[in-house]
Write a structure and sequence with these properties.
With 293 residues, the chain is α+β, with helices and mostly antiparallel strands. The protein has 3 helices and 21 strands. Among the domains are: 105 residues, Immunoglobulin-like; 90 residues, Immunoglobulin-like, CATH 2.60.40.10. It comes from Menidia menidia (Atlantic silverside).
């Protein structure tokens, strides 16, 4: 009888164990995708066993962790454009900067396990913007060429299509060009006269309508004959001037060497000083004169 009573007591304690007295937090939609400039609803549901007034906080994870909702008020850029219903967070007119991972935290101090959390990922979708197109005004015939198109703001990333004279370009058959729809490039190995025309690029994704850049005219011109002759003449003249400079430098160097050798030879030879002029003996001269008389 004692064993039965003990088993009944343990069963009752297990049903009413303290582990059951804990806060639980969840989200009915952990991944949210909305268009730019619309409202994003980040759901957060919680249940407590004892605490009827738990503390609710929302945080955003980025390079660091920032508060969105703290001490019963919104912080930073969320002030004035967000609201709370229970623990569910609604952000009005979201932009791409609002994309990221959010965490709902509920603290129930009277529960045995007093902290619960749920994570919601927000992805803000952005329709295509007008892409930037790089099309030269003119290009020489026979040269290689690459046209570029880029839309940096669309989410998901845009794909691209090129048009010439309002006709979509395709790479079927023996096309003299190649295209990359993901990078937005249009490449020519060797431009011909037939490639001249009006070019534009179009960006598109699954969010909104496609956008095109302004049409630009590209001319294909030949190298003028006088320009070719002028380039050849300039190259020849430059080579001649360089050769003359080298010759002058060599000649000057050899002349300097000769002068230095002469200077060295003149310094090495020191001629003896001239002998002093003969001195006359006046007494001897006088005796000679008297003898002659």
């Amino acid at each position: 009888m004692t064993i039965r009573m003990l088993a009944l007591t343990l069963l009752t304690a297990a049903l009413l164990c303290p582990l059951c007295l804990s806060v639980t937090v969840s989200s009915s939609k952990p991944k949210v995708e909305v268009h730019e400039h619309t409202d994003a609803v980040l759901s957060c549901e919680f249940r407590t066993e004892k605490d009827q007034n738990p503390r609710i906080e929302w945080k955003k994870k980025g390079k660091g962790v920032t508060f969105v909702y703290f001490d019963n008020k919104f912080t930073g850029s969320y002030a004035g454009r967000a609201k709370m219903e229970g623990a569910t967070l609604t952000i009005h007119s979201v932009t791409q900067k609002d994309s990221g991972e959010y965490r709902c935290e509920v603290t129930a101090s009277q529960d045995h396990v007093n902290l619960g959390e749920a994570t919601v990922t927000l992805n803000v979708l952005v329709p295509p913007h007008v892409p930037s197109c790089e099309v030269p005004n003119s290009v020489f015939i026979g040269s290689a060429l690459e046209l570029n198109c880029k839309d940096k703001f669309s989410v998901p990333p845009a794909t691209y299509r090129w048009y010439k004279d309002n006709k979509a370009l395709t790479t079927t058959g023996e096309a003299p060009y190649s295209m990359d729809a993901n990078k937005g490039t249009l490449k020519f190995k060797s431009v011909s006269k037939a490639d001249a025309g009006m070019y534009r690029c179009e960006s598109s994704n699954s969010v909104g309508a496609p956008k095109s850049c302004v049409t630009k005219q590209m001319k294909v011109i030949e190298y003028p004959l006088n320009t070719t002759i002028l380039i050849a003449a300039a190259s020849g003249l430059a080579a001649l001037v360089l050769l003359c400079c080298v010759c002058v430098c060599v000649c000057r160097r050899q002349g300097c060497c000769r002068e230095s050798k002469k200077a060295k030879s003149s310094k090495s030879y020191n001629p003896p000083p001239p002998p002093p002029p003969p001195t006359r003996n006046f007494k001897h001269y006088k005796q000679t004169q008297s003898f002659m008389i």
